[in-house]
Amino acid sequence: MSRVKITEYRAKKLILGDSYTGVSIHNGKIALPKSGRFVAKVDQGIKKRFKQGLVAVDVPSTAISKSVSLWRKKGFSHFLVEPYVPHEESEEQYLSLERVRTGIRILHASAGGIDIEAHPELVKTYLINPALPYMIVPGIPEKFLKHLVEVFEKNFFSFLEINPLVVRGDEVYILDAAVLVDSAGIFFVKNGWSEDDIVEGKARHIAEEKVQALQKTTPASLKLTILHPDGGLFFLLSGGGGSIVIADEAELNGVGRSIGNYGEYSGGPTREETHLYAREVIQLLLNSPAKKKALVIAGGIANFTDIKSTFRGIVDALSEYAGILRRKGVKVFVRRGGPHEKEGLLYMEEYLKKEKLFVSVYGSEAVITSAVDDAIAFIKK
Amino acid sequence: MKKRIDKISNGVNILELTRSGRVRVLVIGNHSGIIQSMLDFDFLSGKDIPSVLGIVAGNRKAEKYFFGTKEILLPCYKNIQIASEVLGSKVDWMLNLQSGRRTFESTVSFFDFFPKSLGAHIFAENVPESHATELISRFGKKYFIVGPSGVGLLVPNALKLGAIGGVDAVQIKSGALTSAGNIAVGSTSGGMTNELIHAVARAGKRLSFAIAIGGDRFPVVSLTQIFALAEADSQTEGFVYFGELGGVDEYEIIELIKAKKFTKPLVAYIAGIIDEAFDEHVQFGHAKALVQTMDESARAKREALRSVGVIAPDTFPQFLDALQKLPGGAYTAEEMDIEPLQGRQKSILSTRKVLDIDEGRIFVKGKKLLKGKENAFVDATLGALLGKPVHSPVTRAFTEAVFEMLIDHGGNVSGAVNTMITARAGKDLVSSLASGLLTVGPRFGGAINEAARLWILGVVSQKTGLEFVAEKAKAGELILGIGHKKYRVGLPDPRVKALAEFATLLKKHPHYDFARSVEKATTSKNGKLILNIDGAIAALLLDILSECEGMSERELQELADAEFFNAFFVIPRSVGFIAHFMEQKKNDEGLFRLPDELLFVREEAPKKGKKK
Fold this sequence. Notes:
A: Rossmann fold, seven-stranded antiparallel sheet, four-stranded antiparallel sheet, B: alpha/beta, Rossmann fold, seven-stranded mixed sheet, about 45% helix, elongated
């Protein structure tokens, strides 16, 4: 399970229902009433929007399309426009709800705004759980808080932050809201948020984009982050924890600057999925201008991921580029354990020897860092 | 209940109870690799019986697995309730392998039906946070639940609950999972749990227990509880821990150490230095920053652990060296032959063993015929069909009566006609018999089984005959076992009358009573809708099997699912069909052909060129 951000538009719509008059703009023209003052902002889960100039406050409708087209040029695609609520800074409050082990933790401060972190002494903490389902929070209308908790539960929220919040009697104005939902809740949420409302982190590289797209089609876990495109050390790592240990070893040995990529394939991907994933990493390696390049195929001792079938997928990808890999003097270093380890390692070793890419192949009897240590020595030489 | 809570919260008894044999597991969902690895672990641990009692999954009745080299059938149950009816309170642990969507419901159901169990492992990775926190608040203090996510719990030589330690026999050997020692392993990463298990084995040490806490935000058994468990466990003399950046669990361990609640040697590796190579670090919302100022980076957590005396090396190889220095003798590699477990082939068919194939039998002795067993054929038939011998003379006599009664019902009935036509077309005995038998179905001969289903349904649902009939009428469904062409109220079917007397031999006959109450409802509409021979056989047979052979309603349902009741028609009627075949062969009237006067019902084809 993971916590993912949904758009501010959807968050407010879920909380306020039909009474919310904000408009979400994705593609196409903006139809707004001619009179009135508005707030327009980029709605893509970006932090510190004010500082980056991604919010336009107290503007007439005529100014909105100008702001939006400016933001579009910067590469943004989702925007939110809502009526401007004039208020005093002294009215601003801070309110957040977060799911914790023992229930839902409420944080409230009678002052809000972007400087709230500087004033932790103003923050009061409350906890609600099945034994104590409702709470009086001075300054927050009881009915509103109760409603907020209901929305929070019903929609599998993990975290909700309203900052600033303005309260006038029974009236509540949510000026800015951020919501993290529990992605595992998607099957249970009815008439709430959906896949379309989730804000995605921008892929910075075509390879990252391809792996993200591949990830969406499989229950296995495929992740790729590019660190240094000009590095000499490229990783095909498997299993979450093991991947970190191996990457740590490179960082700790002072070759952090040479690490081309980080990521993992785990959770039992098929031969084909592993093939497609490995292809992206091999292409990254080939595109790097580094003189000495090593491919590290390594991971811990798998509990149930089949070594033979995933290694077949990697060999499928290697086979596409074997000639050029050999000509560029790329070497391959392997350490892996798990089901069908012996067959998988033998298969890989024979293939690498045949293609003259072989340096070392280790199994579960060797230390997890064996292959990466060899690779570090190779690129340092 | 108070006492139980103490047991779980101080933890030690979970391990001791497990080591003393409380290891019987019910698996929810199927994952053949994991289940087989648990059976291999049991076998290689030298157990006589497998820990897995059964599987709640799908529509199958059983799944094939190996215990050693011997093939076994693990029973499958449709749902947890049925499993609890069969297994009673025998189950100690649940292994929940369902997807995260279904986990919550099945876990709650498991503890409802097995309140005396010790705990569980939940395998799924996508269990919603609110489900996890709900499980914590409902069961956290009563049961030991490992997960959601992770790979489970291992108590060497006693219990392998999940994929932990790997799923093939090679790893059971290389990880020394069947030999108990004094090192506890805890890890947030499933893969690294196995890595640590193997590292302990390579260091010549053995495990006291191992747990993969799982990478989820809210594991039911918390890291603190696991350290408390290790502290309380008399077998454990050292702890090996793998953690990652993110989260503040490690600060809880530090608190435990400061409070002297954890005093045993601890070697820890906190991974995640690589994060320093990223431009963007793990980001936290305001709330986190406001609540706690503890640094979640790998480096900070390492430093904090060191400050209370924990050995927390920088690199993994240094960590392995430190592990070497933990207490514990130098074990040598396991003497274990896993060769036979490799390359096992599942049989294609499972079948009962015919025991008396080679048994010597004597029929004639000293030129005299020995007195045979009474109803010997019926006895052997029932034994074969039910898979176990029958006990009661009533069962034998009733079967004998039905067989005798159903041998033939004259040459007019569908099956007999088909047999005869086939015989006259010049076909052989088996073809003609098959032709007749293939006619058996819902309208001819196949009604006994359907009637049995209805009577079971009626008894289980505790409906009155009137309600039942109203329901069926509303749904437009026929009630098989009711109705006759010739006989009616006032003119009873003599065969039904004869069989009905069997009811007087029984103390209770709920199925028969129900069938009669249905008849009462139907005959009030139409005098022909009486309980017919099929319905009567089904009802009485159900009552006899229930009372005289001690079968439960569930076992009767299984028989109906396997069409057992239709065998009571097919067996005797085969004799009748063969008799019809032989008669045709003897008379040899040549090919049968229908006379020309047939009713043509086909519409004339529309003329060409004309469209409707």
